[in-house]
């Protein structure tokens, strides 16, 4: 039974032969279909540059579905139903002449969703083409990240889209917001009165956000070398996570209430001056190493690499938020490619009790920690102090976890991919999990000053061996403050 709020729509997927569409978007749409969440009348029009028979392109989509959807989730009935929804049209998105044919193909559509799985440089042309062929009126547009390369280019992209579409119909994707565990952050913080009273500089000593990837750049040199880890991950995913951890409680769950609070955090981020860069930010680039016992090449040996590149594949930084809630609480952010394991987690370190009745030798050298594991092994663990069991132990304290593992607790439930949630929310017309223009712009403004500082310094990123936790300087960044990265093996 489809929830009534999910209406029929036509989804026009621009960039349908690209990596994102084939690896993530079509599989996510398939999963929605299998879960009974696509309206019977929903149609999907795949749009790509390559000509040829539509059947040929639809066969490629089918092959990728079989590759990227878990075998247990593939069934003939859904595959048939899903393929009956699909059609393909070849067009050059930059050519204004191509849009009347698109309008013809679409016919009369009540609700069009135009998903731009293309480089952001094409978004303006697509919006103009849609508008000039009478397709903008009932259309929601979905924009992939990164929006621009810096503040100036993001303003240009956002302006080009805003010429034809109001903000209420623009859905900017940050796929981390679609992850179940990231949404759980909102539930954890605002549905449990227990935490809110402790969620401030009086009780929290520091916060760590780690998004470590085991993969390298996956054949995306052309894109990645122009971007680097700061633009690719910090500007969007890590700053969004930081906002969700640090924002004040929104007055309700509406998109703008949440976005208003996130923007306040971004505005309160203390700038990091060129003079502070050396102490507060570490950039790294992986060299050859090994992951899970397998040798992997360095960044400069990747396919199509330019051996002179100074692009960073790792960033660790110490950020501060200048407001009453967070004054004096460092936020340590760290993200890198080719790290020992895939791991996204947030660790909230609470301060020690104001007065200890236990002797130093009776207690471990740690205080309470809340560990929010975003992926993999999704779950939440609160480390609390308890007494060691046993008559011989006396009042010897130990730290142990109060654990909520999502896979154990919701055993039979598959954790949906972020894109399933996000596509569903676009179909419902709900902008909660999408990023507003000003969030993107404040995030760029903060990142731009770091990039400008690096450019002024002209220094190369520090090397780290693939399969390690980044350059030694990233450890020094946190140990200088008397702290450690949680859980590094
Ligand atoms: N791949 C990923 O995991 C992620 C991607 N993104 C974002 O998603 C977007 C798409 O990324 P990705 O799929 O990796 O990129 P790809 O280069 O693999 O795909 C882009 C697609 O757009 C098509 N295209 C580009 N320009 C035109 C044009 N003028 N006319 C017709 N088709 C055109 C390309 O066709 P052709 O091949 O013929 O050039 C290609 O099929 C980007 O904005 C990226 O930053 C965001 C997060 C993750
Ligand atoms: O947006 C991006 O995210 C992926 C990491 O996403 P995850 O869901 O696998 O954690 C990253 O590999 C890619 O470089 C970046 O563009």
From TrEMBL:
Say if the entry is tagged with keyword Oxidoreductase: yes
**Per UniProt, which keywords does this protein have?**
Carbohydrate metabolism, Glucose metabolism, NADP, Oxidoreductase
GO MF, any single term: NADP binding
User: What are the catalytic residues?
Assistant: 237
Positions annotated to bind substrate: 175, 179, 213, 232, 337, 342
Answer yes or no on keyword Protein biosynthesis. no
Q: In which pathway does it act?
A: Carbohydrate degradation; pentose phosphate pathway; D-ribulose 5-phosphate from D-glucose 6-phosphate (oxidative stage): step 1/3
One Pfam family from the record: G6PD_N
Similarity annotation: Belongs to the glucose-6-phosphate dehydrogenase family.
Q: Which NCBIfam families match?
A: zwf (TIGR00871)
Protein purpose: Catalyzes the oxidation of glucose 6-phosphate to 6-phosphogluconolactone.
Q: What is this protein called?
A: Glucose-6-phosphate 1-dehydrogenase
Q: List the source organism.
A: Aquipseudomonas ullengensis
């Amino acid at each position: 039974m489809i929830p009534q709020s999910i209406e029929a729509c036509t989804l026009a997927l621009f960039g349908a032969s690209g990596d994102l569409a084939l690896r993530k978007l079509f599989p996510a749409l398939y999963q929605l279909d299998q879960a009974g969440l696509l309206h019977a009348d929903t149609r999907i029009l795949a749009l790509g540059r390559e000509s040829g028979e539509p059947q040929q392109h639809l066969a490629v989509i089918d092959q990728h579905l079989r590759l990227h959807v878990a075998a247990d989730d593939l069934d003939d009935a859904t595959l048939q139903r899903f393929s009956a929804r699909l059609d393909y049209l070849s067009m050059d998105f930059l050519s204004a002449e191509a849009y009347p044919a698109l309008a013809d193909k679409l016919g009369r559509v009540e609700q069009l969703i135009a998903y731009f799985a293309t480089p952001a440089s094409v978004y303006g042309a697509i919006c103009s083409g849609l508008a000039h062929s009478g397709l903008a009126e009932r259309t929601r547009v979905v924009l992939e990240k990164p929006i621009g390369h810096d503040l100036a280019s993001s303003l240009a992209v956002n302006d080009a889209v805003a010429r034809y579409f109001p903000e209420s119909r623009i859905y900017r994707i940050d796929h981390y917001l679609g992850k179940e565990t990231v949404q759980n952050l909102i539930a954890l913080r605002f549905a449990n009165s227990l935490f809110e009273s402790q969620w401030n500089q009086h009780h929290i000593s520091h916060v760590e956000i780690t998004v470590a990837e085991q993969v390298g750049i996956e054949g995306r040199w052309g894109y990645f070398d122009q971007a680097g880890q700061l633009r690719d991950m910090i500007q969007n995913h890590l700053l969004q996570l930081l906002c969700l951890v640090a924002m004040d409680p929104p007055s309700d769950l509406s998109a703008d209430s949440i976005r208003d609070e996130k923007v306040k955090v971004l505005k309160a981020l203390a700038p990091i001056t060129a003079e502070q860069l050396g102490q507060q930010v570490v950039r790294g680039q992986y060299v050859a190493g090994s992951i899970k016992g397998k040798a992997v090449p360095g960044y400069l040996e990747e396919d199509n690499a330019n051996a002179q590149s100074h692009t960073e594949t790792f960033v660790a930084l110490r950020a501060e938020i200048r407001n009453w809630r967070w004054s004096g609480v460092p936020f340590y952010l760290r993200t890198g490619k080719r790290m020992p394991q895939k791991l996204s987690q947030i660790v909230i370190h609470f301060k020690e009790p104001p007065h200890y009745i236990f002797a130093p030798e009776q207690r471990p050298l740690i205080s309470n920690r809340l560990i929010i594991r975003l992926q993999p092994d999704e779950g939440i663990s609160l480390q609390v102090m308890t007494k060691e069991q046993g008559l011989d132990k006396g009042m010897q304290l130990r730290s142990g976890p109060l654990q909520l593992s999502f896979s154990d607790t919701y055993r039979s439930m598959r954790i949906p991919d972020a894109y399933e949630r996000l596509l569903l929310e676009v179909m419902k017309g709900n902008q909660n999990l999408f990023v507003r223009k000003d969030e993107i712009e404040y995030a760029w403004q903060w990142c731009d000053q770091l990039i400008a500082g690096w450019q002024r310094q002209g220094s190369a990123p520090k090397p780290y061996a693939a399969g390690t936790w980044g350059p030694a300087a990233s450890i020094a960044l946190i140990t200088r403050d008397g702290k450690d990265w949680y859980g590094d093996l």
